[in-house]
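Input chain follows. Return C-alpha coordinates only.
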Amino acid sequence: MILAALFCSAVLGYMAGIRQSRPDAAVPVKTYVLDLGLIHLNLTVGAMGVLVISLLTLLFASALLLAAVASRRRRHADVLRRDITAQKRIEDNLATSNQELELRNREVERATKLKSSFLASMSHELRTPLNAIVGFSDLLAEQTAGPLNDKQKRFVNHIKQGSAHLLQLINDILDLSKIEAGQLELRCEDFQVKDALPEVLSTIRPLAMAKNIQIEQKMEMDQYVYADRVRFKQVLYNLLSNAVKFTPKAGRIDIDCREDGNSVRISVTDTGVGIRAEDQAVIFEEFRQVEGPAGTTQEGTGLGLAITKRLVAQQGGRISLESEFGKGSRFTFTLPAGSRGSETPPLNEPSRPLIVVGEGCGKPLILVVDDETTARELLASYLCPEYRIAMAQSGEEAVKQARHLRPDAITLDVLMSGGNGFETLAALKKAPETANIPIIIVSIVDQKQVGFALGAVDYLIKPIRKPVLLETIRKYVLPQSDDDEAILLVDDDPRALELLEETLRSAGYEVESVRSGTRALEVLSSKLVSAVLLDLLMPGMDGFEVIRHIRQEATLRELPIFVMTAKNLTGDELLVLTRETQALFHKNGSWQQQLMVEVGRILQVRKLAKSAGQS
Protein backbone atom coordinates (compact mmCIF):
# COMPACT_ATOMS: atom_id res chain seq x y z
CA MET A 1 0.00 0.00 0.00
CA ILE A 2 2.88 2.32 0.77
CA LEU A 3 4.41 1.67 -2.65
CA ALA A 4 1.07 2.42 -4.35
CA ALA A 5 0.75 5.75 -2.51
CA LEU A 6 4.27 6.72 -3.44
CA PHE A 7 3.60 5.79 -7.05
CA CYS A 8 0.37 7.86 -7.04
CA SER A 9 2.10 10.87 -5.58
CA ALA A 10 4.84 10.64 -8.19
CA VAL A 11 2.28 10.55 -11.05
CA LEU A 12 0.31 13.48 -9.65
CA GLY A 13 3.48 15.42 -9.19
CA TYR A 14 4.41 14.73 -12.77
CA MET A 15 0.99 15.97 -13.97
CA ALA A 16 1.31 19.08 -11.90
CA GLY A 17 4.68 19.71 -13.44
CA ILE A 18 3.17 19.46 -16.92
CA ARG A 19 0.46 21.98 -15.96
CA GLN A 20 2.93 24.47 -14.66
CA SER A 21 5.00 24.24 -17.87
CA ARG A 22 1.93 25.44 -19.87
CA PRO A 23 0.68 28.56 -18.05
CA ASP A 24 -1.22 29.82 -21.05
CA ALA A 25 -3.23 26.65 -21.46
CA ALA A 26 -6.66 26.27 -20.12
CA VAL A 27 -6.90 24.53 -16.78
CA PRO A 28 -8.54 21.20 -17.31
CA VAL A 29 -11.07 19.89 -14.88
CA LYS A 30 -10.68 16.33 -13.84
CA THR A 31 -12.50 13.99 -11.52
CA TYR A 32 -10.24 11.72 -9.37
CA VAL A 33 -11.26 8.79 -7.25
CA LEU A 34 -9.16 8.49 -4.08
CA ASP A 35 -9.43 4.98 -2.63
CA LEU A 36 -8.27 4.86 0.99
CA GLY A 37 -9.38 1.39 1.82
CA LEU A 38 -12.79 1.81 3.40
CA ILE A 39 -13.03 5.42 2.28
CA HIS A 40 -13.76 6.36 -1.35
CA LEU A 41 -13.53 10.05 -2.30
CA ASN A 42 -14.61 11.47 -5.68
CA LEU A 43 -12.67 14.69 -6.17
CA THR A 44 -13.06 17.17 -9.08
CA VAL A 45 -10.00 19.34 -9.10
CA GLY A 46 -7.83 21.38 -11.27
CA ALA A 47 -4.04 21.44 -11.49
CA MET A 48 -3.62 22.99 -8.04
CA GLY A 49 -5.92 20.42 -6.63
CA VAL A 50 -3.76 17.70 -8.09
CA LEU A 51 -0.76 19.16 -6.33
CA VAL A 52 -2.61 19.33 -3.03
CA ILE A 53 -3.83 15.78 -3.38
CA SER A 54 -0.32 14.69 -4.20
CA LEU A 55 1.02 16.32 -1.07
CA LEU A 56 -1.74 14.84 1.06
CA THR A 57 -1.08 11.42 -0.42
CA LEU A 58 2.62 11.76 0.33
CA LEU A 59 1.91 12.78 3.91
CA PHE A 60 -0.51 9.90 4.33
CA ALA A 61 2.02 7.43 2.90
CA SER A 62 4.68 8.76 5.26
CA ALA A 63 2.32 8.31 8.17
CA LEU A 64 1.62 4.76 7.11
CA LEU A 65 5.38 4.12 6.78
CA LEU A 66 6.05 5.50 10.24
CA ALA A 67 3.23 3.40 11.66
CA ALA A 68 4.68 0.25 10.02
CA VAL A 69 8.13 1.03 11.43
CA ALA A 70 6.68 1.57 14.88
CA SER A 71 4.74 -1.69 14.63
CA ARG A 72 7.88 -3.55 13.62
CA ARG A 73 9.79 -2.04 16.54
CA ARG A 74 7.01 -3.11 18.88
CA ARG A 75 7.19 -6.66 17.52
CA HIS A 76 10.97 -6.67 17.94
CA ALA A 77 10.57 -5.39 21.47
CA ASP A 78 8.00 -8.10 22.24
CA VAL A 79 10.31 -10.78 20.80
CA LEU A 80 13.22 -9.37 22.81
CA ARG A 81 11.12 -9.32 25.98
CA ARG A 82 10.07 -12.91 25.35
CA ASP A 83 13.70 -13.92 24.74
CA ILE A 84 14.80 -12.21 27.94
CA THR A 85 11.98 -13.87 29.86
CA ALA A 86 12.86 -17.27 28.39
CA GLN A 87 16.56 -16.72 29.16
CA LYS A 88 15.74 -15.73 32.71
CA ARG A 89 13.49 -18.77 33.05
CA ILE A 90 16.35 -20.99 31.76
CA GLU A 91 18.77 -19.37 34.18
CA ASP A 92 16.30 -19.88 37.03
CA ASN A 93 15.81 -23.52 36.03
CA LEU A 94 19.58 -23.98 35.77
CA ALA A 95 20.10 -22.44 39.19
CA THR A 96 17.38 -24.70 40.60
CA SER A 97 18.97 -27.74 38.92
CA ASN A 98 22.38 -26.77 40.31
CA GLN A 99 20.92 -26.46 43.78
CA GLU A 100 19.23 -29.84 43.45
CA LEU A 101 22.46 -31.37 42.11
CA GLU A 102 24.46 -29.89 44.97
CA LEU A 103 21.88 -31.18 47.42
CA ARG A 104 22.04 -34.65 45.89
CA ASN A 105 25.86 -34.54 45.94
CA ARG A 106 25.73 -33.74 49.64
CA GLU A 107 23.28 -36.58 50.12
CA VAL A 108 25.62 -38.93 48.21
CA GLU A 109 28.59 -37.78 50.30
CA ARG A 110 26.55 -38.27 53.45
CA ALA A 111 25.45 -41.72 52.27
CA THR A 112 29.09 -42.61 51.46
CA LYS A 113 30.17 -41.49 54.93
CA LEU A 114 27.33 -43.44 56.50
CA LYS A 115 28.31 -46.50 54.46
CA SER A 116 31.94 -46.15 55.51
CA SER A 117 30.85 -45.74 59.11
CA PHE A 118 28.57 -48.75 58.78
CA LEU A 119 31.37 -50.86 57.30
CA ALA A 120 33.72 -49.85 60.10
CA SER A 121 31.05 -50.56 62.71
CA MET A 122 30.10 -53.85 61.07
CA SER A 123 33.73 -54.85 60.86
CA HIS A 124 34.26 -54.25 64.55
CA GLU A 125 30.90 -55.33 65.96
CA LEU A 126 30.72 -58.59 63.98
CA ARG A 127 34.36 -59.60 63.88
CA THR A 128 35.00 -59.01 67.58
CA PRO A 129 32.48 -61.54 68.95
CA LEU A 130 33.15 -63.90 66.07
CA ASN A 131 36.84 -63.70 66.86
CA ALA A 132 36.05 -64.95 70.36
CA ILE A 133 33.96 -67.81 68.98
CA VAL A 134 36.69 -68.91 66.57
CA GLY A 135 39.47 -68.50 69.10
CA PHE A 136 37.80 -70.35 71.97
CA SER A 137 36.63 -73.15 69.70
CA ASP A 138 40.25 -73.55 68.53
CA LEU A 139 41.41 -73.72 72.14
CA LEU A 140 38.74 -76.30 72.94
CA ALA A 141 39.68 -78.35 69.88
CA GLU A 142 43.33 -78.27 70.96
CA GLN A 143 42.12 -79.45 74.41
CA THR A 144 44.11 -76.80 76.25
CA ALA A 145 41.35 -76.59 78.86
CA GLY A 146 41.16 -80.37 79.30
CA PRO A 147 40.39 -83.52 77.34
CA LEU A 148 37.16 -83.84 75.32
CA ASN A 149 35.17 -86.94 74.57
CA ASP A 150 34.31 -87.86 70.99
CA LYS A 151 30.90 -86.19 71.03
CA GLN A 152 32.35 -82.96 72.42
CA LYS A 153 35.03 -82.99 69.72
CA ARG A 154 32.34 -83.31 67.05
CA PHE A 155 30.37 -80.43 68.55
CA VAL A 156 33.44 -78.22 68.72
CA ASN A 157 34.28 -79.01 65.12
CA HIS A 158 30.74 -78.03 64.10
CA ILE A 159 31.24 -74.70 65.90
CA LYS A 160 34.58 -74.17 64.16
CA GLN A 161 33.18 -74.94 60.72
CA GLY A 162 30.13 -72.73 61.20
CA SER A 163 32.11 -69.80 62.58
CA ALA A 164 34.74 -70.11 59.85
CA HIS A 165 32.00 -70.03 57.19
CA LEU A 166 30.35 -67.01 58.81
CA LEU A 167 33.67 -65.20 59.13
CA GLN A 168 34.45 -65.83 55.47
CA LEU A 169 31.05 -64.47 54.47
CA ILE A 170 31.59 -61.32 56.55
CA ASN A 171 35.07 -60.77 55.14
CA ASP A 172 33.84 -61.29 51.57
CA ILE A 173 30.93 -58.86 51.96
CA LEU A 174 33.20 -56.23 53.50
CA ASP A 175 35.80 -56.67 50.75
CA LEU A 176 33.16 -56.42 48.03
CA SER A 177 31.66 -53.32 49.63
CA LYS A 178 35.08 -51.67 49.82
CA ILE A 179 35.79 -52.42 46.17
CA GLU A 180 32.42 -51.09 44.98
CA ALA A 181 32.80 -47.97 47.14
CA GLY A 182 36.31 -47.35 45.79
CA GLN A 183 37.77 -47.61 49.31
CA LEU A 184 40.02 -50.60 48.77
CA GLU A 185 43.63 -49.53 49.26
CA LEU A 186 46.27 -51.36 47.22
CA ARG A 187 49.97 -51.29 48.06
CA CYS A 188 51.63 -52.51 44.91
CA GLU A 189 55.27 -53.56 44.82
CA ASP A 190 57.63 -55.71 42.78
CA PHE A 191 57.99 -59.25 44.11
CA GLN A 192 58.62 -62.76 42.85
CA VAL A 193 55.74 -65.17 42.42
CA LYS A 194 57.84 -67.98 43.86
CA ASP A 195 58.20 -66.01 47.13
CA ALA A 196 54.46 -65.54 47.63
CA LEU A 197 53.32 -68.95 46.39
CA PRO A 198 54.62 -71.03 49.36
CA GLU A 199 52.68 -68.88 51.81
CA VAL A 200 49.46 -69.80 49.99
CA LEU A 201 50.38 -73.45 49.50
CA SER A 202 51.13 -73.89 53.21
CA THR A 203 47.41 -73.30 53.80
CA ILE A 204 46.13 -75.16 50.73
CA ARG A 205 48.26 -78.32 50.95
CA PRO A 206 46.64 -79.70 54.14
CA LEU A 207 43.23 -79.37 52.44
CA ALA A 208 44.56 -81.10 49.33
CA MET A 209 46.30 -83.85 51.30
CA ALA A 210 43.06 -84.66 53.09
CA LYS A 211 41.59 -85.55 49.65
CA ASN A 212 44.85 -87.02 48.31
CA ILE A 213 44.98 -84.30 45.66
CA GLN A 214 48.36 -83.74 44.04
CA ILE A 215 49.50 -80.12 43.51
CA GLU A 216 52.18 -79.45 40.91
CA GLN A 217 53.98 -76.19 40.14
CA LYS A 218 55.28 -75.18 36.72
CA MET A 219 57.50 -72.11 36.72
CA GLU A 220 59.11 -70.90 33.50
CA MET A 221 61.54 -68.66 35.40
CA ASP A 222 61.65 -66.37 38.42
CA GLN A 223 58.81 -64.09 37.37
CA TYR A 224 58.34 -60.71 39.05
CA VAL A 225 54.90 -59.13 39.27
CA TYR A 226 53.87 -55.62 40.23
CA ALA A 227 50.90 -56.06 42.52
CA ASP A 228 49.65 -55.91 46.08
CA ARG A 229 51.25 -58.94 47.72
CA VAL A 230 48.36 -59.52 50.17
CA ARG A 231 45.69 -59.26 47.47
CA PHE A 232 47.77 -61.41 45.11
CA LYS A 233 47.81 -64.17 47.72
CA GLN A 234 44.06 -63.69 48.24
CA VAL A 235 43.39 -64.16 44.51
CA LEU A 236 45.60 -67.25 44.34
CA TYR A 237 44.07 -68.69 47.51
CA ASN A 238 40.53 -68.19 46.18
CA LEU A 239 41.34 -70.03 42.95
CA LEU A 240 43.24 -72.86 44.65
CA SER A 241 40.64 -73.37 47.39
CA ASN A 242 37.93 -73.59 44.72
CA ALA A 243 40.04 -76.10 42.80
CA VAL A 244 40.44 -78.26 45.91
CA LYS A 245 36.74 -77.93 46.73
CA PHE A 246 35.53 -79.06 43.31
CA THR A 247 38.19 -81.69 42.61
CA PRO A 248 37.36 -85.25 43.71
CA LYS A 249 39.73 -87.43 45.69
CA ALA A 250 43.00 -88.48 44.04
CA GLY A 251 42.70 -85.57 41.61
CA ARG A 252 45.33 -83.14 40.40
CA ILE A 253 45.87 -79.38 40.45
CA ASP A 254 48.51 -77.63 38.33
CA ILE A 255 49.84 -74.12 38.91
CA ASP A 256 51.45 -72.60 35.85
CA CYS A 257 53.28 -69.26 35.78
CA ARG A 258 54.70 -67.75 32.58
CA GLU A 259 55.66 -64.40 31.16
CA ASP A 260 53.29 -62.96 28.56
CA GLY A 261 54.78 -59.78 27.07
CA ASN A 262 54.48 -57.05 29.69
CA SER A 263 52.37 -59.27 31.92
CA VAL A 264 52.72 -62.42 33.99
CA ARG A 265 50.12 -65.13 33.36
CA ILE A 266 49.20 -67.47 36.22
CA SER A 267 46.90 -70.45 35.62
CA VAL A 268 45.24 -72.84 38.07
CA THR A 269 44.08 -76.05 36.36
CA ASP A 270 42.14 -78.82 38.09
CA THR A 271 40.65 -82.20 37.20
CA GLY A 272 37.42 -81.37 38.98
CA VAL A 273 33.75 -81.36 38.06
CA GLY A 274 34.04 -78.55 35.52
CA ILE A 275 31.54 -75.78 34.85
CA ARG A 276 28.53 -75.96 32.54
CA ALA A 277 28.64 -73.73 29.45
CA GLU A 278 25.58 -71.75 30.57
CA ASP A 279 27.21 -71.06 33.97
CA GLN A 280 30.54 -69.86 32.59
CA ALA A 281 29.10 -66.50 31.55
CA VAL A 282 27.84 -65.72 35.08
CA ILE A 283 30.42 -67.49 37.24
CA PHE A 284 32.09 -64.19 38.20
CA GLU A 285 28.84 -62.59 39.40
CA GLU A 286 27.99 -62.19 43.08
CA PHE A 287 26.45 -65.13 44.94
CA ARG A 288 26.89 -67.52 42.00
CA GLN A 289 27.86 -71.09 42.81
CA VAL A 290 28.68 -74.00 40.55
CA GLU A 291 26.44 -77.05 40.54
CA GLY A 292 28.06 -80.46 40.63
CA PRO A 293 27.24 -83.33 38.29
CA ALA A 294 24.32 -84.43 40.44
CA GLY A 295 22.95 -80.91 40.78
CA THR A 296 24.46 -80.44 44.23
CA THR A 297 25.89 -77.09 45.28
CA GLN A 298 29.08 -76.89 47.30
CA GLU A 299 29.44 -74.84 50.45
CA GLY A 300 30.63 -71.26 50.06
CA THR A 301 29.55 -67.64 49.98
CA GLY A 302 29.34 -67.33 46.20
CA LEU A 303 31.46 -64.18 46.42
CA GLY A 304 34.97 -65.58 46.00
CA LEU A 305 35.20 -65.37 42.22
CA ALA A 306 33.39 -62.02 42.08
CA ILE A 307 35.94 -60.55 44.49
CA THR A 308 38.78 -62.27 42.65
CA LYS A 309 37.79 -60.69 39.33
CA ARG A 310 37.56 -57.22 40.86
CA LEU A 311 40.89 -57.58 42.68
CA VAL A 312 42.62 -58.64 39.47
CA ALA A 313 41.04 -55.78 37.50
CA GLN A 314 41.99 -53.18 40.10
CA GLN A 315 45.62 -54.28 39.82
CA GLY A 316 45.63 -53.85 36.05
CA GLY A 317 45.01 -57.48 35.07
CA ARG A 318 42.26 -59.68 33.71
CA ILE A 319 40.91 -63.14 34.48
CA SER A 320 39.44 -65.78 32.17
CA LEU A 321 37.98 -69.27 32.38
CA GLU A 322 38.24 -72.41 30.26
CA SER A 323 36.21 -75.40 31.38
CA GLU A 324 34.61 -78.61 30.14
CA PHE A 325 31.85 -80.01 32.29
CA GLY A 326 32.92 -83.21 33.99
CA LYS A 327 36.60 -82.85 33.04
CA GLY A 328 37.94 -79.84 34.91
CA SER A 329 38.57 -76.11 34.72
CA ARG A 330 41.39 -73.68 34.14
CA PHE A 331 41.31 -70.17 35.61
CA THR A 332 43.94 -67.82 34.21
CA PHE A 333 44.71 -64.32 35.44
CA THR A 334 47.32 -61.80 34.39
CA LEU A 335 49.10 -59.05 36.30
CA PRO A 336 51.63 -56.42 35.21
CA ALA A 337 55.19 -57.72 35.10
CA GLY A 338 57.47 -56.29 37.76
CA SER A 339 61.05 -55.11 37.71
CA ARG A 340 63.71 -57.67 38.50
CA GLY A 341 65.98 -55.14 40.15
CA SER A 342 69.76 -55.12 40.08
CA GLU A 343 70.43 -57.84 42.60
CA THR A 344 70.50 -61.47 41.55
CA PRO A 345 70.69 -64.37 44.00
CA PRO A 346 74.01 -66.18 44.11
CA LEU A 347 74.16 -69.50 42.28
CA ASN A 348 74.89 -72.75 44.08
CA GLU A 349 74.66 -71.07 47.47
CA PRO A 350 75.37 -73.64 50.17
CA SER A 351 72.38 -74.58 52.25
CA ARG A 352 72.29 -73.16 55.73
CA PRO A 353 70.11 -73.92 58.73
CA LEU A 354 67.19 -71.56 58.99
CA ILE A 355 66.37 -70.60 62.57
CA VAL A 356 63.06 -68.85 62.17
CA VAL A 357 62.24 -68.14 65.80
CA GLY A 358 64.29 -67.67 68.92
CA GLU A 359 67.80 -68.14 67.65
CA GLY A 360 70.33 -68.11 70.52
CA CYS A 361 67.81 -68.42 73.35
CA GLY A 362 67.20 -71.28 75.75
CA LYS A 363 64.17 -72.72 73.98
CA PRO A 364 64.52 -76.25 72.57
CA LEU A 365 65.61 -76.55 68.94
CA ILE A 366 63.68 -78.75 66.51
CA LEU A 367 65.21 -79.76 63.18
CA VAL A 368 62.48 -80.13 60.51
CA VAL A 369 63.57 -82.35 57.60
CA ASP A 370 61.41 -82.41 54.45
CA ASP A 371 62.13 -81.83 50.76
CA GLU A 372 58.95 -79.76 50.26
CA THR A 373 59.20 -76.10 51.29
CA THR A 374 55.51 -75.83 52.12
CA ALA A 375 55.62 -78.94 54.32
CA ARG A 376 58.60 -77.54 56.26
CA GLU A 377 56.90 -74.18 56.72
CA LEU A 378 53.67 -75.82 57.86
CA LEU A 379 55.46 -77.84 60.57
CA ALA A 380 57.48 -74.79 61.59
CA SER A 381 54.30 -72.72 62.00
CA TYR A 382 52.87 -75.46 64.22
CA LEU A 383 55.96 -75.52 66.44
CA CYS A 384 56.45 -71.77 66.82
CA PRO A 385 56.93 -70.08 69.22
CA GLU A 386 57.41 -72.84 71.78
CA TYR A 387 60.51 -74.05 69.95
CA ARG A 388 63.30 -72.75 67.78
CA ILE A 389 63.23 -74.18 64.30
CA ALA A 390 65.97 -75.28 61.92
CA MET A 391 65.19 -76.73 58.48
CA ALA A 392 66.81 -79.20 56.12
CA GLN A 393 65.58 -80.23 52.67
CA SER A 394 67.54 -83.47 52.17
CA GLY A 395 68.87 -86.39 54.17
CA GLU A 396 72.50 -85.39 53.61
CA GLU A 397 71.83 -81.85 54.78
CA ALA A 398 69.90 -83.16 57.80
CA VAL A 399 72.87 -85.26 58.97
CA LYS A 400 75.27 -82.31 58.64
CA GLN A 401 72.99 -79.91 60.49
CA ALA A 402 72.18 -82.41 63.21
CA ARG A 403 75.88 -82.86 63.93
CA HIS A 404 76.45 -79.10 63.94
CA LEU A 405 73.34 -77.90 65.77
CA ARG A 406 72.65 -80.84 68.12
CA PRO A 407 68.87 -80.24 68.05
CA ASP A 408 66.62 -81.41 70.89
CA ALA A 409 64.44 -83.35 68.41
CA ILE A 410 64.12 -84.05 64.68
CA THR A 411 61.03 -84.47 62.52
CA LEU A 412 61.90 -86.55 59.45
CA ASP A 413 60.04 -87.23 56.22
CA VAL A 414 60.54 -90.65 54.60
CA LEU A 415 59.86 -89.85 50.94
CA MET A 416 62.43 -87.30 49.77
CA SER A 417 64.02 -86.73 46.39
CA GLY A 418 67.68 -87.71 46.34
CA GLY A 419 67.50 -90.17 49.21
CA ASN A 420 65.40 -92.37 51.47
CA GLY A 421 64.37 -91.00 54.87
CA PHE A 422 64.97 -94.40 56.49
CA GLU A 423 68.60 -94.21 55.35
CA THR A 424 68.89 -90.80 57.00
CA LEU A 425 67.35 -92.20 60.17
CA ALA A 426 69.87 -95.03 60.23
CA ALA A 427 72.77 -92.62 59.65
CA LEU A 428 71.65 -90.35 62.49
CA LYS A 429 71.30 -93.25 64.91
CA LYS A 430 74.66 -94.64 63.89
CA ALA A 431 76.67 -91.45 64.64
CA PRO A 432 77.52 -91.09 68.37
CA GLU A 433 76.89 -87.31 68.44
CA THR A 434 73.31 -87.68 67.09
CA ALA A 435 72.34 -91.15 68.34
CA ASN A 436 70.43 -89.89 71.37
CA ILE A 437 68.38 -87.21 69.55
CA PRO A 438 64.66 -88.14 69.47
CA ILE A 439 63.58 -88.61 65.84
CA ILE A 440 59.89 -88.46 64.92
CA ILE A 441 58.88 -89.70 61.48
CA VAL A 442 56.31 -87.42 59.79
CA SER A 443 55.38 -88.96 56.45
CA ILE A 444 52.55 -89.82 54.12
CA VAL A 445 53.88 -93.41 53.97
CA ASP A 446 52.69 -95.71 56.76
CA GLN A 447 55.68 -97.93 57.57
CA LYS A 448 55.73 -97.67 61.33
CA GLN A 449 57.39 -101.03 61.94
CA VAL A 450 60.38 -100.08 59.79
CA GLY A 451 60.63 -96.67 61.45
CA PHE A 452 60.51 -98.03 64.98
CA ALA A 453 62.96 -100.80 64.08
CA LEU A 454 65.49 -98.20 62.90
CA GLY A 455 65.20 -96.12 66.08
CA ALA A 456 62.40 -93.59 65.60
CA VAL A 457 60.68 -92.64 68.86
CA ASP A 458 57.32 -91.90 67.17
CA TYR A 459 55.62 -92.10 63.79
CA LEU A 460 53.00 -89.61 62.50
CA ILE A 461 50.99 -89.96 59.27
CA LYS A 462 50.36 -86.89 57.08
CA PRO A 463 48.20 -84.86 57.03
CA ILE A 464 48.96 -83.98 60.61
CA ARG A 465 47.14 -81.53 62.86
CA LYS A 466 48.92 -79.02 65.06
CA PRO A 467 47.73 -80.40 68.44
CA VAL A 468 48.87 -83.90 67.53
CA LEU A 469 52.33 -82.69 66.52
CA LEU A 470 52.76 -80.54 69.64
CA GLU A 471 51.54 -83.31 71.92
CA THR A 472 54.01 -85.73 70.32
CA ILE A 473 56.96 -83.32 70.56
CA ARG A 474 56.15 -82.58 74.21
CA LYS A 475 56.52 -86.28 75.04
CA TYR A 476 60.22 -86.01 74.30
CA VAL A 477 61.03 -82.27 74.56
CA LEU A 478 59.50 -79.90 77.09
CA PRO A 479 59.02 -76.30 75.95
CA GLN A 480 60.84 -73.71 78.00
CA SER A 481 59.95 -70.11 78.58
CA ASP A 482 62.71 -67.71 79.51
CA ASP A 483 60.51 -64.64 79.70
CA ASP A 484 60.83 -63.03 83.12
CA GLU A 485 58.46 -60.18 82.36
CA ALA A 486 54.78 -60.43 81.50
CA ILE A 487 53.04 -59.30 78.32
CA LEU A 488 50.53 -56.53 79.04
CA LEU A 489 47.15 -57.13 77.33
CA VAL A 490 44.92 -54.08 76.80
CA ASP A 491 41.34 -54.53 75.58
CA ASP A 492 37.94 -53.36 76.83
CA ASP A 493 36.31 -56.65 75.74
CA PRO A 494 36.63 -59.26 78.54
CA ARG A 495 36.11 -62.13 76.09
CA ALA A 496 38.95 -60.91 73.90
CA LEU A 497 41.20 -60.62 76.97
CA GLU A 498 40.36 -64.13 78.11
CA LEU A 499 41.08 -65.53 74.65
CA LEU A 500 44.44 -63.74 74.50
CA GLU A 501 45.34 -64.92 78.00
CA GLU A 502 44.61 -68.55 77.17
CA THR A 503 46.45 -68.36 73.84
CA LEU A 504 49.61 -66.80 75.27
CA ARG A 505 49.68 -68.82 78.49
CA SER A 506 49.32 -72.07 76.56
CA ALA A 507 52.50 -71.02 74.72
CA GLY A 508 54.35 -70.41 78.00
CA TYR A 509 54.07 -66.62 78.36
CA GLU A 510 53.16 -64.69 81.50
CA VAL A 511 50.41 -62.14 80.93
CA GLU A 512 48.72 -59.27 82.74
CA SER A 513 45.40 -57.86 81.52
CA VAL A 514 43.77 -54.42 81.83
CA ARG A 515 40.58 -53.09 80.24
CA SER A 516 41.41 -49.44 79.52
CA GLY A 517 44.18 -47.30 78.13
CA THR A 518 44.40 -45.28 81.34
CA ARG A 519 44.93 -48.41 83.42
CA ALA A 520 47.56 -49.64 80.93
CA LEU A 521 49.60 -46.45 81.41
CA GLU A 522 49.37 -46.85 85.19
CA VAL A 523 50.75 -50.41 84.96
CA LEU A 524 53.56 -49.29 82.65
CA SER A 525 54.55 -46.56 85.06
CA SER A 526 54.99 -49.01 87.94
CA LYS A 527 55.99 -52.37 86.38
CA LEU A 528 58.34 -53.78 83.79
CA VAL A 529 56.66 -55.63 80.94
CA SER A 530 58.18 -57.42 77.97
CA ALA A 531 55.60 -56.17 75.45
CA VAL A 532 52.15 -54.61 75.05
CA LEU A 533 49.33 -56.22 73.06
CA LEU A 534 46.82 -53.48 72.40
CA ASP A 535 43.33 -53.03 70.95
CA LEU A 536 42.60 -49.76 69.14
CA LEU A 537 38.88 -49.22 69.71
CA MET A 538 38.36 -48.56 73.40
CA PRO A 539 36.14 -46.02 75.22
CA GLY A 540 37.91 -43.07 76.75
CA MET A 541 41.54 -43.34 75.72
CA ASP A 542 41.84 -45.26 72.47
CA GLY A 543 44.79 -47.31 71.31
CA PHE A 544 46.39 -44.55 69.24
CA GLU A 545 46.53 -42.29 72.29
CA VAL A 546 48.06 -45.10 74.37
CA ILE A 547 50.76 -45.59 71.71
CA ARG A 548 51.49 -41.85 71.68
CA HIS A 549 51.90 -41.75 75.48
CA ILE A 550 54.16 -44.82 75.46
CA ARG A 551 56.46 -43.42 72.77
CA GLN A 552 56.74 -40.10 74.61
CA GLU A 553 58.30 -41.84 77.62
CA ALA A 554 62.06 -42.20 77.24
CA THR A 555 62.11 -45.54 79.12
CA LEU A 556 59.36 -47.02 76.93
CA ARG A 557 60.40 -45.90 73.46
CA GLU A 558 61.84 -49.32 72.62
CA LEU A 559 59.01 -51.32 74.23
CA PRO A 560 57.48 -53.72 71.65
CA ILE A 561 53.86 -52.88 70.88
CA PHE A 562 51.58 -55.32 69.08
CA VAL A 563 48.20 -54.12 67.82
CA MET A 564 45.21 -56.37 67.25
CA THR A 565 41.98 -54.82 66.05
CA ALA A 566 38.85 -55.32 63.98
CA LYS A 567 38.92 -51.69 62.81
CA ASN A 568 39.14 -50.83 59.11
CA LEU A 569 42.25 -48.68 59.07
CA THR A 570 42.87 -45.64 56.88
CA GLY A 571 46.13 -45.03 55.07
CA ASP A 572 47.27 -42.46 57.65
CA GLU A 573 46.47 -44.82 60.52
CA LEU A 574 48.45 -47.61 58.87
CA LEU A 575 51.43 -45.28 58.49
CA VAL A 576 51.31 -44.46 62.21
CA LEU A 577 51.09 -48.11 63.22
CA THR A 578 53.87 -49.12 60.82
CA ARG A 579 56.12 -46.45 62.28
CA GLU A 580 55.31 -46.88 65.98
CA THR A 581 54.50 -50.58 66.47
CA GLN A 582 56.11 -53.94 65.78
CA ALA A 583 53.18 -55.90 64.31
CA LEU A 584 49.51 -55.51 63.38
CA PHE A 585 46.94 -58.33 63.57
CA HIS A 586 43.34 -58.25 62.39
CA LYS A 587 40.61 -60.02 64.33
CA ASN A 588 39.65 -62.20 61.41
CA GLY A 589 39.96 -65.64 62.97
CA SER A 590 43.50 -66.49 61.81
CA TRP A 591 45.62 -64.28 64.03
CA GLN A 592 46.78 -66.81 66.67
CA GLN A 593 49.52 -68.43 64.61
CA GLN A 594 50.82 -65.11 63.32
CA LEU A 595 50.73 -63.65 66.81
CA MET A 596 52.79 -66.47 68.26
CA VAL A 597 55.42 -66.18 65.54
CA GLU A 598 55.75 -62.40 65.82
CA VAL A 599 55.74 -62.30 69.62
CA GLY A 600 58.41 -65.00 69.77
CA ARG A 601 60.54 -63.27 67.14
CA ILE A 602 60.34 -59.75 68.60
CA LEU A 603 60.86 -60.80 72.20
CA GLN A 604 63.86 -62.91 71.27
CA VAL A 605 65.44 -60.03 69.36
CA ARG A 606 64.88 -57.82 72.40
CA LYS A 607 66.47 -60.35 74.73
CA LEU A 608 69.47 -60.73 72.46
CA ALA A 609 69.86 -56.95 72.40
CA LYS A 610 69.74 -56.84 76.20
CA SER A 611 72.28 -59.64 76.47
CA ALA A 612 74.59 -57.86 74.04
CA GLY A 613 74.27 -54.66 76.02
CA GLN A 614 75.13 -56.38 79.31
CA SER A 615 78.14 -58.27 77.95
